[in-house]
Design brief:
Blueprint lengths: L1 E2 L13 H13 L4 E3 L2 E2 L4 E2 L3 E3 L7 E2 L16 E4 L2 H12 L4 H17 L8 E5 L4 E5 L22
Parallel strand pairs: 1-6, 7-8
Antiparallel strand pairs: 2-5, 3-4, 8-9
Length: about 160
């Protein structure tokens, strides 16, 4: 799994595409281990090198994973359906008051990003959080020609 929080930085909230393609996607596409340096949001610097070996499936998690430049490399795009305000509140709780200034900039940057490069219309699956678990539905980009098998079961899982 690759967390995009490890790729983005204070200075490059969404301008990290080239680095991700160079350091992670290209090596993996050739069947070799990717190497990247995760960003430390507290010290505002990159940490030690981290290896990401090739695998049949690598989950890329985070805001911006479905951007136009990455979609050709994706087997499936999942969209977590969550109100912006709820997502931002979760992030603020996770990060604490030390990152308040960051969150003001993040909200503006995220809105700009999705205005220029929306991901949801290209999602194969929509993931909705329920009171207990998640429900997985066909996304806007799903077609009958695509297999929706994401588990050992036939079709998407639903627990709501």
């Amino acid at each position: 799994m690759l967390h995009l929080d490890d790729i983005a930085t204070h200075e490059e909230l969404f301008a990290w595409t080239g680095r991700l393609l160079r350091e992670v996607v290209e090596p993996l596409s050739h069947g070799t281990t990717a190497h990247y340096r995760p960003y430390d949001w507290d010290t505002r610097g990159f940490g030690p090198d981290r290896a990401l070996p090739p695998a049949p499936v690598i989950l890329v998690e985070g805001v911006g994973a479905g951007r136009r430049a990455l979609r050709p490399w994706l087997a499936r795009l999942l969209w977590m359906e969550l109100a912006d305000e709820d997502a931002w509140a979760r992030g603020r709780r996770r990060d604490g008051s030390a990152q308040n200034e960051f969150w003001e900039g993040w909200v503006r940057a995220e809105r700009r990003h999705f205005t220029k490069d929306p991901s949801k219309p290209f999602a194969d699956l929509l993931v909705l959080q329920c009171s207990e678990g998640y429900e997985v539905l066909q996304g806007p980009a799903a077609t009958s020609a695509k297999s929706l098998s994401v588990t050992d079961r036939d079709g998407p899982a639903s627990v709501c």
